[in-house]
Specification:
The chain is about 5% helix and about 50% strand. By secondary structure, it is mainly beta. The chain has a single domain (about 1-230), classed as Lipoprotein localisation LolA/LolB/LppX (outer membrane lipoprotein receptor (LolB), chain A, Clam). A 14-stranded mixed sheet has the order 7-8-9-10-11-12-13-1-2-3-4-5-6-14, with helices on one face. The relative contact order is 0.18.
């Protein structure tokens, strides 16, 4: 289940431009957790109506379907069961990749989440901005730093109320997708005050848009015979 929700936080975007119809891409994530390497390979299929199908190929086959509203289905085709949930934070408008392709200000969703710009300065060719969190995030963050180079976000840093850096993210290997700057590689490093860290690098490739994006998974439907697994934590 950890691998499944890893993917959810990586691929979400709604509308790239008016003539956008569909986009597909390939993803590989390499995550080091407790000294173990977890490699996730997946293909993503997304249309302009907000439906996203993520076909995880490894470490085990799983199919994830979610939409703008946050309706989520996670299907295990081998065991033929499906986990269903609803949570807006799992919708296709709430992740960083959505903002790379939608947010023209390249604020990575900070303003949309209620963060307010605090300071901005130029230093050695970089634009360095800091952001203050809204009330609902003050228990988690004290400040967020977002750094740009030539108008592209290249680095974020999240600091908690103890002035401890809890996460750093690096965005690089940019390419153009429908005239938008899109990073083909993202590295996240999460830190624990105990000294542990989780390192995750995600690489995207094989990007196809509109008429070039043809695959049956765009219209994938979970079989009606699939057994529904309930969320016992609710």
């Amino acid at each position: 289940m950890v691998t499944v929700f890893l993917v959810l936080g990586l691929f979400s975007f709604k509308s790239i431009e008016e003539n956008f119809e569909r986009i597909s891409l390939t993803m590989q994530s390499r995550k080091v957790l407790n000294g173990k390497l977890i490699i996730t390979n997946a293909d993503l299929f997304y249309n302009s109506e907000g439906k996203m199908v993520t076909h995880i190929l490894a470490p085990f086959e799983t199919i994830i379907i979610n939409n703008v509203k946050g309706d989520l289905s996670i299907y295990n085709p081998i065991e033929n069961y499906v986990y269903k949930d609803y949570n807006y934070t799992q919708g296709t408008e709430t992740s960083s990749l959505y903002y790379f392709l939608k947010d023209k200000n390249n604020e990575l969703g900070l303003r949309a989440l209620g963060f307010k710009l605090n300071t901005s300065k130029f230093e050695n060719g970089f634009l360095i901005t800091t952001w203050l969190p809204p009330a609902q995030y003050m228990k988690i963050f004290s400040i967020v730093e977002l750094v740009y180079q030539q108008g592209k976000p290249i680095f974020t840093k999240f600091i908690n109320n103890k002035n401890f850096v809890i996460k750093r993210s690096y965005y690089y290997n940019y390419t153009k997708v429908l005239n938008y700057n899109f990073p083909l590689a993202i590295t996240h490093i999460e830190y624990s005050e105990k000294g542990d860290s989780i390192v995750e690098k995600t690489v995207y490739s094989n990007i196809k848009v509109n008429n070039l994006a043809t695959n049956s998974y765009f219209d994938y439907q979970i079989p009606a015979s699939a057994k529904i697994v309930k969320n016992d934590k609710k």
